[in-house]
């Protein structure tokens, strides 16, 4: 085992503080990664504050990991020392169920082993990327293509795949009208990816404060949802609405913006219950649905797509001792558009 420095929350809502954790010895099929950068995802905050229910503490968050291979086990064939690699939201799954066999490990019937706030098959808690190193089975490690810098690639491990996967599933491309609700860590990647796929992209945000950014990122249109006229003017417009915000919305109003057969896909998960009127779904075969991350194969596909199109996250690089401040700023939407921790500062 190896002792490494990390930042952890000792209990729900406790500030994250520097500590040390143990990483397992490198096994036959393991990859030891020197973590260089790790993104701060809003889900880190939800979990560290137990906003989504009971959690495992002490907690080392972080599932947007980018780094360099430092060691490989004797059975590893896909990676070598020096490779640029990433780790996303999961580090294992049952590997035997129908979903795992289909490359949908995120829907593992036995539940995936999440990168943090989980218990692994060895009975020990998993610790995430707010740390210097991590050991991961090679089957759950992603290759970061040449041309993608590690700092801007790190958020792709969650924000990238969380938006790419539903666009692929709902066949976003030329001729499709896509709306992105919210221009934050997820939303800004959704705009970039949908634009690169060839769709007509609209941002729906509370105000026009980020309009210039939205258009720069690839949006064709930008509307303020705080203006009631927006919902009148855009009624029946979109094939797909991707909701990236993790706060309750007026779902009935947003569903009215879908074309016949359109889908509103939610990837942000509010802590509070939400309500809809089922009448909003009837009559036009509209769907209100959700999407998670993607499987390992699809996540690699996303990374290759982003490299091909020159897509990385817009980031603000911070020191590890700024994590608690960053959490507060995320809550105020005061980041454009993803905080990334330089792990050399841990």
UniProtKB/TrEMBL annotation:
Its EC number is 1.1.1.2. InterPro entries: ADH-like_C, ADH-like_N, ADH_Zn_CS, CAD-like, ER, GroES-like_sf, NAD(P)-bd_dom_sf. Keywords: Metal-binding, Oxidoreductase, Zinc. Residues 14-341 form the Enoyl reductase (ER) domain. SUPFAM superfamilies: GroES-like, NAD(P)-binding Rossmann-fold domains. Its cofactor is Zn(2+). It catalyses: a primary alcohol + NADP(+) = an aldehyde + NADPH + H(+). It comes from the Bacteria. GO terms for molecular function: oxidoreductase activity. Belongs to the zinc-containing alcohol dehydrogenase family. This is alcohol dehydrogenase (NADP(+)). It comes from Streptomyces gibsoniae.
């Amino acid at each position: 085992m190896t002792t490494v420095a990390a930042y952890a929350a000792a209990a729900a809502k406790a500030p994250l503080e520097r500590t040390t954790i143990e990483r397992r010895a490198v096994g036959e099929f393991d990859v030891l990664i020197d973590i260089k950068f790790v993104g701060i995802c809003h889900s880190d905050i939800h979990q560290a504050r137990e906003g989504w229910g009971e959690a495992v503490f002490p907690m080392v968050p972080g599932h947007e990991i980018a780094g360099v291979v430092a060691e490989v086990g004797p059975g590893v064939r896909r990676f070598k020392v020096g490779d640029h690699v990433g780790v996303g939201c999961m580090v294992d799954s049952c590997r035997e169920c129908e979903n795992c066999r289909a490359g949908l490990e995120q829907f593992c019937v036995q539940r995936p082993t999440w990168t943090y706030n989980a218990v692994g098959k060895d009975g020990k808690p998993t610790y995430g990327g707010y740390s210097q190193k991590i050991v991961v089975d090679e089957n759950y490690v992603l290759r970061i293509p040449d041309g993608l810098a590690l700092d801007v690639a790190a958020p792709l491990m969650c924000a990238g795949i969380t938006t790419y996967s539903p666009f692929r599933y709902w066949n976003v491309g030329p001729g499709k009208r896509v709306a992105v609700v919210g221009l934050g860590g997820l939303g800004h990647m959704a705009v970039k990816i949908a634009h690169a796929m060839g769709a007509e992209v609209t941002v729906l945000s509370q105000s026009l404060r980020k309009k210039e950014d939205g258009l720069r990122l690839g949006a064709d249109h930008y509307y303020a949802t705080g203006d009631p006229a927006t919902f009148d003017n855009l009624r029946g417009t979109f094939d797909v609405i991707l909701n990236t915000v993790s706060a309750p919305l007026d779902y009935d109003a947003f569903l009215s913006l879908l074309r016949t057969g359109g889908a509103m896909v939610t990837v942000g998960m509010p802590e509070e219950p939400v309500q809809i009127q089922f009448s909003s779904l009837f009559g036009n075969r509209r769907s209100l649905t959700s999407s998670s991350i993607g499987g390992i194969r699809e996540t690699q596909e996303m990374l290759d797509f982003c490299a091909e199109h020159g897509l990385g996250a817009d980031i603000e690089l911070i020191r590890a001792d700024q994590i608690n401040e960053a959490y507060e700023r995320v809550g105020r939407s005061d980041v454009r558009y993803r905080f990334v921790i330089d792990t050399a500062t841990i």
